[in-house]
């Protein structure tokens, strides 16, 4: 076990994979000489040299597609999309090309590539640099989507993603980069398996990325007996673990940084309702960001992100009185 | 039955075989058009009539372990690369025996044994992928090249610009081939693009470029050879512009009524098959009798490929769920 | 009332808006001289001329952004993205620029633009030309999303979209273009209002676009008493109408052409469960396409799209025995 | 308090005012940097030190009803366009009084009264929008122009290519201005781009282009005037490349250690403020005493703007829900 920051866990996973598999190459904007704007490729350029670690021009479409082509020719490219929003100029190559090449070739070509992207609010980067945007990629058959919640899962899941034979979208909660955690580099994690971080009897809390930490704090604060499920993989998500938990607890709350409309949490609620309807003791519900562009102002941005205080209140409402806690903007009357 | 690779290799240094394959492409497209009109093919098709010299020029200059990222207009290049008329037609008909198992259709040709990457139906879709293939070759220190083949109108999409720049700055063994057939859908290229010689755009990337008569298979080969040599030498990418002409409409039932009078006829005088025919006759390796025999052979070949494809089984429901993800080695 | 095809309803709406408001301009690939590849702008070039009806180069990013800029300067551009997939090369301009300009300007600039795009499977266009892809745009605060189901709603909602002060994504089920329907050009429809096409007591069926027609056939076939709710607007969707219906019937089935994972229907189920939990008589569920790229082969493509036969069976299962009908690929054992 | 428009108009034909506004920009950025270091500004900032001549050159050549689509590096151009130091600083501090009401931040400047469109934090984001504004002007038969201002490294994004082509084919009154400050983030332009003179890319679109010394406000004005005249005459777009230099790091705490030794010093000799100062002294309209007085005035002006911004209220929770959608007229 080694203590390291989340961003160092990323570096270490990249380094370990590059060492053990020479097919792994890394490219993106300022990932080489500058070691990444979030220092997620520290030391890699020095260690692996300019052939395997490359700076690209500002051309997300070209370098995302270059990863697809290189992967089809036997490499295992990892690329960095600095902020998830930038995929908006390159979505085609990942979703419409990369994710469909295996299918369109009767399985003759494979596309083992990883697209890393930082995401999420909380650092004052404003509305075009703060969203999570899982929805852009989550309904893409042929593409896996991962979002780790701590240094250990960042490390283990990034290695699993690089080893995977398929294109993987790897979302990194930007606010976690500086967070420290213990990492056991021998620990393997499987894509598609949720992590039950804490077990309890009265409510199931499902979260992803940094919201896992918010949920953990909330559970502690509310002093409820909860299963905390870190989904970790969004596509394909671990239906079995979630459903078993819901069948046990009878209550379900999803905590997500997505907007109220269109967020991924609906799928968890919807599936759980369909599959575990008779086990439900009360209405399952989501705690999300509001339907607004991410505001820059710090106070507003802090309100934008689901807070442990709010999630705690929601947990109590559900466990103590089988009630749904409405979003704060409704209860406070600031919006519909 | 010859494999795709055998059919590809059969073209090697065999000018008669080029001519014959061009006849096959022409006949294949004629039948495709007919089958579509008869309602026996669904969806859409994009014929490559008039572009056979470019397809053959590419196939004969590249090696089978080079790779090509092409477009929805790829029946011809697929046949040139070695795929059988049966394999391509079965795909167009959605049969399990098609080159993509029937789930791709006319716009998605593929055969890894001859380096034909799944063709893309998105404008600009294949360019970055060819760049990436070339990147792999460079890293792997292989002498192969990646080729992107796309239309004139595709030079206005952002991916074109980004791909050329990236290829240039990384000095990748990639060749961008513009099939300038004068039209993008129903729009003449001059209405969407302010310059006529599209290869001049290479200057923006300090990239060498070549303009070539795309109706002349020998000229195409010479230009491609120059570009391929540069790439294999490690001297980076080339932009090649082949001047061709789309003899057919854009897709399906398009009658191309928007063409200026006489334009088609003008180009038909430079029909690539005609030009090859004349060259081979001049060289004394082809005569009228051989032409007739070949044409008969090709008509029969394509016809029996179609008959076979029609009789072939459809993919099963299970096939639709295959190859979405590659299963992991355990 | 005039009988016209769906695509003619589009033409007529465009023409009527262009006539009544000279700020309306139209551009896209082959929309002018060629009148649109689906003939959705027939006659408009002749009628309104080359200044207001324009062919663009193949440059979705540029012309989508041009619509944003023109809208901010007082025009009301309508653009055509020929197939919804093509937005994959231009998403940035609609979602990250256009939808945020009003917010980022304290309301000083408005972006009244409409992005029309054809979508959906069934015509043998293959995997890169057959998806519905609502998920790319549906979680975008600042962007409305509409998907009509017949000629009347195409006409009335397109007019409403053009008159709206905000960016609107207008999705047209491609398979409907040739369908005929009666159109009353004086009928106004409001964005954000669902249409209850048929009323019943035992189950609520929610659908969008062409799936509304599939649902209608299924209801007739199953001979159940159902509320058929044509959502019509996906963002912002009509919670009130759906919830009132679910509270009345106690059963909910959503029919969608989206994939099983990541589809918009989850949001309907999730919201209805949260808000109308106690009214539910049985588990609500979705009927969707499977998690595969859209296959070209006609038989498979027909199976890909939810069928009236399957929806009918689902209706019966729900109404007659409060059962959930599993997806066919599970019951038939062809996939998990 | 002067309005933005008044501050903009105050620059008209007043060379001393140009100089003073350049001083204001420089001082504003110095204080921004300081406040960021002190933790009083969150998120990120992108300073424009060294680029003041370009900002002033743009603001003084364009009319207030022309529009500009710029980038995250826009404090300077916002001040040049007329926004007050208070309005810009309040935005950077996320205050309700900021030019975007505090929900935008440093990367999102806006003021419709002087034609400053919300600046984009996405590379290439503003270019198509400027094209669209120009399209509106053309349709409306207005004589206005749209301008896109962006960096050297932004010439490698697809939107650049598509925007220039569309503007050229439609002959739109739009001007593309490359602020070639030699770096894109931490990467020198020659590492990402195979040509040095980026304006040469205009040739791909048969578009006229101009290279200009971006450190010289008079030169910038002359070039911009040429481009603006062409646009207003209806003769279409121009690509202008201003050679500048980024005196600061890319953003926030970047120390720009990747710069070759002596490069910064070389460019500092051509500091745009210095050059303007020398020119005005030579013309006899500026002297050392005036300079000192102006500097003191500006230091105080910026300081009180900051003090005021700091004391200003934050937006309320309700403000966060405003302006997501424009409500319909009933
Ligand atoms: C991104 C994108 N935009 C639009 C289309 C629709 N489309 C298909 S083919 C075509 C014309 C392409 O012309 P060109 O590049 O000259 O190739 P050609 O068809 O002549 O071979 C268009 C606009 C598409 N497939 N992808
Ligand atoms: C599409 C996209 N990719 C990457 C970025 C991250 N990024 C922000 S600024 C920048 C460098 C831009 O350099 P340049 O265009 O020269 O402008 P400058 O910052 O020098 O003014 C990059 C890569 C972005 N904002 N958008
Ligand atoms: Mg063409
Ligand atoms: Mg720069």
Automatic annotation (TrEMBL), chains A, C:
Keyword Oxidoreductase found: yes
Key word rRNA processing present: no
SMART domains: Transket_pyr (SM00861)
Region forming the signal peptide: none
Organism: freshwater metagenome
Cofactor(s) in the UniProt record: thiamine diphosphate
Domain Transketolase-like pyrimidine-binding intervals: 4-179
Name of the protein in question: Unannotated protein
Keyword set, alphabetical order: Oxidoreductase, Thiamine pyrophosphate
Molecular function (Gene Ontology), one example: oxidoreductase activity
Pfam families: Transket_pyr, Transketolase_C
UniProtKB/TrEMBL annotation, chains B, D:
GO BP: any one term: pyruvate decarboxylation to acetyl-CoA
GO molecular function terms attached to this record: pyruvate dehydrogenase (acetyl-transferring) activity
Pfam families: E1_dh
Keywords: Oxidoreductase, Thiamine pyrophosphate
Cofactor: thiamine diphosphate
Gene3D superfamilies per record: 3.40.50.970
PANTHER family: 3-METHYL-2-OXOBUTANOATE DEHYDROGENASE SUBUNIT ALPHA, PYRUVATE DEHYDROGENASE E1 COMPONENT, ALPHA SUBUNIT BACTERIAL AND ORGANELLAR
Protein name: Unannotated protein
Native source species: freshwater metagenome
Source organism phylogeny: unclassified sequences, metagenomes, ecological metagenomes
């Amino acid at each position: 076990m080694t203590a390291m920051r989340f961003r160092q866990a990323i570096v270490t996973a990249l380094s370990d994979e590059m060492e053990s598999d020479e097919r792994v190459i890394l490219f993106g904007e300022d990932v080489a000489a500058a070691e990444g704007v979030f220092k997620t490729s520290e030391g890699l350029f020095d260690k692996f040299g300019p052939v395997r670690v490359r700076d690209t021009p500002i051309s997300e479409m070209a370098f995302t597609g270059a990863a697809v082509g290189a992967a089809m020719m036997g490499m295992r490219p990892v690329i960095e999309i600095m902020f998830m929003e930038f995929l908006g100029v390159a979505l085609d190559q990942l979703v419409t090309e990369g994710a469909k090449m295996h299918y369109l070739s009767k399985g003759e070509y494979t596309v083992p590539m990883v697209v890393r992207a930082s995401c999420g609010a909380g650092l004052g980067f404003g509305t075009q640099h703060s969203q999570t945007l899982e929805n852009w990629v989550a309904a893409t058959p042929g593409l896996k989507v991962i979002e780790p919640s701590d240094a250990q899962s960042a490390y283990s899941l990034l290695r699993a993603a690089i080893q995977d034979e398929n294109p993987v979208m790897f979302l990194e909660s930007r606010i976690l980069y500086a967070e420290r955690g213990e990492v056991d580099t021998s620990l393997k994690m499987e894509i598609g398996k949720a992590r039950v971080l804490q077990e309890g009897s009265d409510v199931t809390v499902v979260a992803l990325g940094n919201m896992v930490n918010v949920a953990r704090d909330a559970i502690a604060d509310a002093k409820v007996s909860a299963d905390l499920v870190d989904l970790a993989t969004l596509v394909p998500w671990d239906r079995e673990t979630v459903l078993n938990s819901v069948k046990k607890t009878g209550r379900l709350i999803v905590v997500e940084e997505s907007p109220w409309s269109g967020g991924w949490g609906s799928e968890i609620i919807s599936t759980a309702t369909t599959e575990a309807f008779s086990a439900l003791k009360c209405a399952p519900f989501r705690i999300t960001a509001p339907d607004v562009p991410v505001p820059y102002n710090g106070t507003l941005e802090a309100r934008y992100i689901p807070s442990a205080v709010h999630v705690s209140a929601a947990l109590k409402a559900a466990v103590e009185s089988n009630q749904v806690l409405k979003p704060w903007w409704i209860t406070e009357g600031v919006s519909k | 039955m010859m494999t795709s690779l055998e059919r590809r290799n059969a073209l090697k240094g065999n000018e008669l075989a080029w001519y014959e394959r061009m006849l096959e492409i022409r006949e294949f497209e004629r039948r495709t058009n007919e089958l579509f009109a008869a309602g026996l093919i669904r969806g859409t098709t994009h014929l490559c009539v008039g572009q056979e010299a470019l397809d053959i020029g590419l196939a004969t200059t590249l090696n089978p372990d080079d790779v090509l990222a092409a477009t929805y207009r790829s029946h011809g290049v697929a046949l040139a690369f070695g795929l059988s008329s049966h394999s391509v037609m079965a795909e167009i008909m959605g049969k399990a025996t098609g080159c993509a198992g029937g789930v791709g259709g006319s716009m998605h040709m593929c055969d890894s044994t001859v380096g034909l990457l799944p063709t893309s139906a998105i404008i600009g879709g294949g360019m970055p992928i060819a760049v990436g293939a070339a990147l792999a070759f460079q890293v792997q220190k292989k002498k192969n090249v990646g080729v992107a083949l796309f239309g004139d109108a595709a030079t206005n999409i952002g991916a074109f610009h980004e791909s050329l720049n990236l290829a240039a700055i990384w000095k990748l063994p990639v060749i961008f081939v513009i099939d300038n057939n004068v039209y993008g859908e129903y729009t003449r290229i001059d209405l969407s693009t302010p310059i006529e010689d599209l290869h001049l755009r290479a200057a923006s990337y300090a990239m060498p470029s070549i303009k070539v008569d795309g109706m002349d298979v020998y000229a195409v080969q010479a230009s491609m050879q120059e570009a391929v040599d540069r790439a294999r030498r490690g001297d980076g990418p080339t932009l090649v512009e082949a001047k061709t002409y789309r003899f057919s409409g854009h897709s399906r039932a398009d009658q191309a009524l928007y063409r200026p009078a006489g334009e088609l006829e003008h180009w038909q005088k430079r029909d690539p098959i005609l030009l090859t025919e004349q060259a081979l006759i001049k060289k004394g390796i082809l005569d009228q009798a051989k032409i007739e025999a070949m044409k008969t052979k090709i008509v029969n070949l394509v016809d029996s490929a179609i008959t076979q494809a029609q009789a072939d089984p459809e993919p099963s429901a299970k096939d639709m769920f295959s190859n979405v993800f590659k299963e992991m080695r355990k």
